[in-house]
Design goal:
GO terms for molecular function: hydrolase activity. By secondary structure, the protein is α/β, with parallel strands linked by helices. Helix content is about 40%, strand content about 15%. The longest helix is centred in the N-terminal third of the chain and has 15 residues.
Length: about 290
């Protein structure tokens, strides 16, 4: 395997104009298209989720890292960013003229990938999720990391940000001063913070749960038996945001799913278990 090149932020940045505003994304590498979808939380972006993985994946795939609206990079589409994320993905892949493609989705991004497959069966060839899908069975919900995220959203202090960041990982050394400063800068940006409150403010979060419970539409976990894409579920054994028991339903009901659990790893498997994650995912994506 050739040495990995570290991609440059500015050199890989692209823009796609849509009816709702500009979607920004990073493009790196050559090969079949691989769409990478980020999770949620203060200071999150697709670049921050996946920049460390692009050097390897870009040797085999045309990596397309979408920045969802409402997280401070792409234009804000208004509304609930978790709801508009699916529409953004639809506009993105259609705007780039992608017919079939692979997807890696971290947490919320994995849910968006599943939602896309349910709405457009056959377009996603292979789907990799990183925690965050399914539902709690043995553990209480929401998870510890979600509660700390709510605390930061309600009262954005540096201390509450650090507490949330530590809930995302198994090894506290991952939470460096550089990471804290980077996440603090974007997480406290007025626009990004206002958007976060639409998702994780306590009143907004309670309203979302109430709306889901009252809806006539089955929850996503109850529709996973319809997923067509061959699916790799990846999970950190020590995930405090979406505990491992959440994987049991998708593992059991997605027709062509397999589960890989990384020990000594929290919610960011692509970062904390980087080498093992890349080896596992690359093998899955490159299978005939």
């Amino acid at each position: 395997m050739t040495d990995q090149v570290i991609p440059d932020y500015d050199a890989t940045m692209r823009e796609l104009q849509t009816d709702n505003g500009v979607l920004r994304y990073h493009e790196y590498g050559d090969g079949p298209p691989l769409v990478l979808l980020h999770g949620s939380g203060p200071g999150v972006s697709g670049w921050r989720n996946y920049r460390g993985n692009l050097g390897l994946f870009g040797q085999h795939f045309r990596c397309l890292v979408l920045e969802f609206p409402g997280f401070g990079v792409s234009d804000d589409w208004g509304g609930h960013p978790m709801v508009t994320a699916l529409s953004a993905m639809e506009a993105f892949v259609d705007g780039l003229g992608l017919d079939t493609f692979d997807v890696i989705g971290n947490s919320m991004g994995g849910g968006v990938g599943i939602g896309y497959d349910l709405a457009h069966p056959g377009r996603i060839r292979r789907l990799v999720t990183i925690g965050g899908i399914g539902r709690n069975i043995f553990s209480p919900g929401p998870g510890e990391g979600i509660k700390l995220l709510q605390e930061f959203t309600e009262n954005p202090t540096r201390e509450s940000l650090v507490q949330w960041l530590h809930s995302m990982v198994y090894n506290p050394a991952v939470v460096t001063d550089e990471l804290i400063e980077e996440r603090w800068a974007l997480g406290t940006d007025p626009g990004a913070l206002e958007s976060a409150r639409r998702m994780y403010g306590k009143a907004a979060f309670a309203a979302m749960i109430k709306g889901m419970e009252a809806s006539d539409v089955p929850p996503q976990w109850a529709q996973m038996h319809k997923v067509k894409a061959k699916t790799l579920l990846t999970w950190g054994r020590d995930d405090r945001v979406s505990p491992l028991d959440m994987a049991l339903i998708p593992m059991r009901v997605i027709p062509n799913a397999e589960l890989h659990v990384f020990p000594n790893c929290g919610h960011w498997a692509m970062i904390e278990a980087k080498a093992d994650f890349e080896r596992t995912v690359l093998g899955f994506l490159r299978e005939a």
